[in-house]
Structure to design on (173 residues):
């Protein structure tokens, strides 16, 4: 499990800053992602931060990003000082706001909010692409990368013998 938290000033620029930090973390942790998961994670974090900026309290926000590679999940959490929990609205086509939590709900596997001792925590859990699970399965079946390479060499070396029964250049090793 990989996890990191960072603080932001509660200001409109915080949504863009949080997106950049998230993209850096995903890259640093080498999490699997595709176009859809990238869009979902950056949109959801932007919405959570934007809601905390607009409806939160206090000067600072705290963002926690937690990746569970075993479950192919990414948990995004935003903490602010307001005890008022967000509520899902049903915006009309003419509404200028109120779509943020609707987006979060549709792009995440699960989401929620709860009061904490210092305000609230709003969170969303997202699916990461299953590519990593396939790689992990391959390594469990075939062994670590160096063992895979060794097995391949054992198969390929005999093909490079010049005459049947003649030792190869590396047989003295």
């Amino acid at each position: 499990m990989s996890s990191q938290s960072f603080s932001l000033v509660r200001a409109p620029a915080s949504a863009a800053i949080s997106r950049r930090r998230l993209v850096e973390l995903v890259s640093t942790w080498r999490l699997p992602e595709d176009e859809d998961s990238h869009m979902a994670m950056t949109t959801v974090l932007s919405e959570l931060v934007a809601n905390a900026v607009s409806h939160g309290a206090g000067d600072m926000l705290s963002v926690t990003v937690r990746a569970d590679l075993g479950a192919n999940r990414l948990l995004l959490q935003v903490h602010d000082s307001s005890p008022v929990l967000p509520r899902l609205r049903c915006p009309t086509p003419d509404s200028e706001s109120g779509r943020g939590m609707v987006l979060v709900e549709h792009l995440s596997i699960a989401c929620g909010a709860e009061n904490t001792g210092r305000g609230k925590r709003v969170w969303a859990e997202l699916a990461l692409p299953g590519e990593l699970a396939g790689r992990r399965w391959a390594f469990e079946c075939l062994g670590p990368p160096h063992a895979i390479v060794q097995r391949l060499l054992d198969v390929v070396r005999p093909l490079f013998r010049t005459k049947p029964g003649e030792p190869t250049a590396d047989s003295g090793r």
